[in-house]
């Protein structure tokens, strides 16, 4: 029965206060401040007759050193297959990283600036590819690519769609980069662009200038055969284990030679599982880590309704770091090589291959093995080129080997997700490679630098 006086129970008020104090703050200003929002984000159609689309986030250069119409755009593709580039964005090389803190046993998520972001002087575009990955949409499972040609065709449509969004994008130099399984995506789309461009009017061409592959799976049949010798000479397994691992590797190689692609993929998985069990490592992605990469906070962040709304994503979508459906669709593609596409790209653009020192899956030994077999007239000269010591602020950062259009970098103190481990050095590496500076300078630049140095004496 209502009365003129308040009948609120003081105990209820206290309970309500305590309940509200433990609820997470959901306002976009607190968890995702306006200054952290992408310059553009949303969806890029891959086919006019389908609702399938690739999700993107784009961050304009923070401090461009050239007019925006001439400022390079870096495109980032994650690996997997089926892992989202939003992990690259919010955990590795984007301008803002998700961080987690705890108070009174409650986790609080926020974002903080990443001083090693790759959009310091370049535009930076993240694409969730293939469709069905991350926030990208596959209208039917049948539309998800099952080979690299289909991946590249979708990416080409998305990149063309992105360029058409703003007149400022039309003629800007484009560099495509990515890591892990993107060691196949990157050469595939680079090759596709260079083959497609001559068939298009000049105004519709994609201004591709180069590709960069980090810790990539590119020529799997050669790379799978390196795990035993790599682990043995790293002191992680003994002679008997080395022979056991070599036998498992041979089974994977033999299945490839037979054209049994599905079983070859299973055989590679057995090799990696055997290596992990032999070594007892927390992760093959970085043999120095006691726990795997901690991407959990970024995954939680991307599942918050206000974050999805701010990015232009339907709030009902559930974000997954990696898609089992996409991985299954590309199962028979895993052991197929794209080395021929890298060979084409190194002859017609420029290529950067880089690895983290501690990566046991797709690291230095794995990559150098297939690089030695490249069908390129410059392979011999590249293999004989100086491997130069690379220092940043006086400290050893790694090693750079370059000849002609091919550059190879080993980054010290880094694993598979290299930009997460060495943000500043990865930023310097990509900037100097794009701009042909310092250890990435061509012979003409090296002569000019030497001349300038002598003139200053």
UniProtKB/TrEMBL annotation:
Main location (coarse class): secreted
One GO cellular component term: extracellular region
Database matches in Pfam families: Peptidase_S10
Enzyme Commission no: 3.4.16.-
Domain of life: Eukaryota
Keyword check for Nucleotide-binding: no
InterPro entries: AB_hydrolase_fold, Peptidase_S10, Ser_caboxypep_ser_AS
GO process terms (BP): proteolysis
Signal peptide: 1-28
One GO MF term attached to the UniProt entry: serine-type carboxypeptidase activity
Localization (cell): Secreted
Entry keywords, A to Z: Carboxypeptidase, Hydrolase, Protease, Secreted, Signal
PANTHER family registered for this protein in UniProt: SERINE CARBOXYPEPTIDASE-LIKE 50, SERINE PROTEASE FAMILY S10 SERINE CARBOXYPEPTIDASE
Family as reported in the entry's similarity comment: Belongs to the peptidase S10 family.
Protein name listed in UniProt: Carboxypeptidase
């Amino acid at each position: 029965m209502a009365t003129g006086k308040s009948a609120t129970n003081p105990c209820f008020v206290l309970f309500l206060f305590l309940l509200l104090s433990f609820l997470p703050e959901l306002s976009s200003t607190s968890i995702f401040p306006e200054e952290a929002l992408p310059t553009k984000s949303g969806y890029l159609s891959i086919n006019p007759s389908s609702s399938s689309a690739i999700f993107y986030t784009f961050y304009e250069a923070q401090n461009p050193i050239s007019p925006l119409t001439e400022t390079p755009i870096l495109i980032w593709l994650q690996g997997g297959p089926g892992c989202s580039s939003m992990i690259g964005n919010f955990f590795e090389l984007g301008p803002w990283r998700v961080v987690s803190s705890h108070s009174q046993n409650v986790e609080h998520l926020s974002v903080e600036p990443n001083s090693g972001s790759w959009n310091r002087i370049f535009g930076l575009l993240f694409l969730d590819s293939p469709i069905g990955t991350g926030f990208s949409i596959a209208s039917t499972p049948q539309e998800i690519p099952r080979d690299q040609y289909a991946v590249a065709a979708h990416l080409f449509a998305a990149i063309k769609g992105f360029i058409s969004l703003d007149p400022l994008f039309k003629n800007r130099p484009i560099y495509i980069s990515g890591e892990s399984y993107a060691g196949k995506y990157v050469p595939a789309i680079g090759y596709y662009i260079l083959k497609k461009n001559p068939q298009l009017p000049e105004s519709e061409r994609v201004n591709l200038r180069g590709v960069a592959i980090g810790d990539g799976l590119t020529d799997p049949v050669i790379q799978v055969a390196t795990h035993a010798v790599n682990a043995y000479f790293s002191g992680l397994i003994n002679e008997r284990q080395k022979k056991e691992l070599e036998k498992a590797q041979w089974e994977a190689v033999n299945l490839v030679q037979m054209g049994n692609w599905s079983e070859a993929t299973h055989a590679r998985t057995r090799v990696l599982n055997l290596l992990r069990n032999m070594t007892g490592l927390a992760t093959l992605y970085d043999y120095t880590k006691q726990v795997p990469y901690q991407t959990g906070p970024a995954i939680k962040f991307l599942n918050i309704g206000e974050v999805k709304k701010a990015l232009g994503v339907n709030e009902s979508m559930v974000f997954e770091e990696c898609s089992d459906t996409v991985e299954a669709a590309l199962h028979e593609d895993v052991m197929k090589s794209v080395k021929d596409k890298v060979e084409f790209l190194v002859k017609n653009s420029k290529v950067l291959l880089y690895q983290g020192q501690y990566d046991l899956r797709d690291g230095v030994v794995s990559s150098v093995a297939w690089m030695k077999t490249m069908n390129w007239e410059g392979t011999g000269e590249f293999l004989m080129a100086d491997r130069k010591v690379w220092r940043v602020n006086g400290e050893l950062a790694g090693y750079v080997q370059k000849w002609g259009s091919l550059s190879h970098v080993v980054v010290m103190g880094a694993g598979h997700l290299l930009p997460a481990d060495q943000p500043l050095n990865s930023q310097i590496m990509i900037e100097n490679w794009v701009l042909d500076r310092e250890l990435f300078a061509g012979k003409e630049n090296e002569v000019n630098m030497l001349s300038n140095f002598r003139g200053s004496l």
